[in-house]
Amino acid sequence: MKITDITTTHLHSPEGKPIQDATIPTPKGESGGRGQIFVHIKTDADIEGLGMTYASPGVIDVIESSLKQELIGKDPLDIEKLWNDMYWKVRGYGRKGIAFCAIS
After folding, report:
1. CA 27 to CA 69: how far, in whole Å?
2. CATH number of the domain residue 66 falls in
3. What is the 3-state secondary structure of the chain?
4. What spatial distance separates the first Cα and last Cα of the chain, rounded to whole Å?
5. Predicted local confidence at residue 7, as pLDDT
6. Per residue in 20-44, pLDDT tens?
7. Which of 21, 26, 39, 99 is an S-S bond match for 51, by CB 3.0 to 4.6 Å?
8. Count of structural domains within the chain
9. Pick from 46, 42, 40, 47: which is nearest to 4 by CA?
10. Backbone angles phi, psi at 81, to 5 degrees
11. Rounded to 5 degrees, what are φ and ψ at 97?
C-alpha cells in the first residue's frame, strides 16, 4: 500500500469559542473563533486516513509545499519512518510551532 494523495481542509467558525490560545490567528489572519485543519491521506488501496491539527498560520503551506511531496509513494503503515522523514524535511523551520503542527 502506498500514499497517493494528501489534501487539507480548513474549517473555521468566527463564532466558536477558541481552543487553547485565543491569540493564535487562523490561516486567513483572523484572531479568535475556533478552527481546525483536517489532513486527508489517500492510498492506492482505496483506504483513507484523516488527521487534524490546529489552524495556525502556515500549517497548510508546510503540509502542501513540503510534507506532501515527502510522503507520496510511501507506505502509510511505516509510521516511525514517515515521522522521521517529515522531521528531517522541516527541521529548518524549527523544532516547534507550525512545523510540528504540520507533522502532527
Report:
1. 21
2. 3.30.390.10
3. CCEEEEEEEEEEECCCCCCCCCCCCCCCCCCCCEEEEEEEEEECCCCEEEEEEECCCCHHHHHHHHHHHHHCCCCCCCHHHHHHHHHHHHHHHCCCCHHHHHHC
4. 21
5. 94
6. 554 555 555 666 666 788 999 999 9
7. 39
8. 1
9. 42
10. -65, -40
11. 75, -140
d(CA 83, CA 8): 18
Count of C-beta atoms within a 10 Å radius of residue 72? 14
How many angstroms separate the CA atoms of 21 and 84, rounded?
Answer: 28
Give just the sign of the alpha carbon dihedral 63, 66, 72, 74.
Answer: negative
Inter-residue contact 42 to 75 (CB < 8 Å): no
Q: Is the confidence at residue 81, as pLDDT, over 60?
A: yes
- Could you tell me the residue range of the domain that residue 49 belongs to? 3-103
- pLDDT tens, 49-80? 999 887 776 888 889 989 999 999 999 999 99
Residue at 58: amino acid letter: G
pLDDT of residue 100: 79
